[in-house]
Amino acid sequence: MRNARDLFLSIPRPDLFLFNVVIRGSTANAAPSFVISLYTHLRKNTNLKPDKYTYDFAVSVVSGFKDEIYAMLLHAHSIADGF
Q1: Contact yes or no for 64/32 (Cβ under 8 A)
Q2: Which of 2, 26, 54, 59 would be 31's cystine partner, CB 3.0–4.6 Å?
Q3: Residues 6+ apart with CB under 8 A from 27
Q4: Is there a contact between 16 and 54 (Cβ–Cβ < 8 Å)?
Q5: pLDDT tens string 69-80
Q6: SS3 per-residue string spanning the chain
């Protein structure tokens, strides 16, 4: 997964599909901190808008995190975005 992350981070302007693929891949590796940083980057540094897949994959990863605030925030964002 590390190689996939490095490759993803080297892409100048990844599209939403690539964000979702990397977030989904992080589900298998239980990398909640990476998913949180990736989601934050998506929201703050791109013109892309998360879709239902982004939220589904991201919540799956962070729901296992000790601090449930991240899952609650993602859930709130998904509702605000109409999902």
Answers
A1: yes
A2: 26
A3: 57, 60, 61
A4: yes
A5: 888 999 999 999
A6: CHHHHHHHHHCCCCCHHHHHHHHHHHHHHCCHHHHHHHHHHHHHHCCCCCCHHHHHHHHHHHCCCCCCHHHHHHHHHHHHCCC
Give the total number of structural domains in the chain: 1
User: Encoding tokens for residue 69?
Assistant: 């605030």
Environment class of residue 37 by beta-carbon count within 10 Å: exposed (0-12), middle (13-18) or buried (19+)? Answer: exposed
- 10-51: pLDDT as tens digits: 998 999 999 999 888 887 776 788 888 889 999 999 999 999
| pTM of the complete model beyond 0.85 | no
With tokens 């992350």, the residue in question is 5
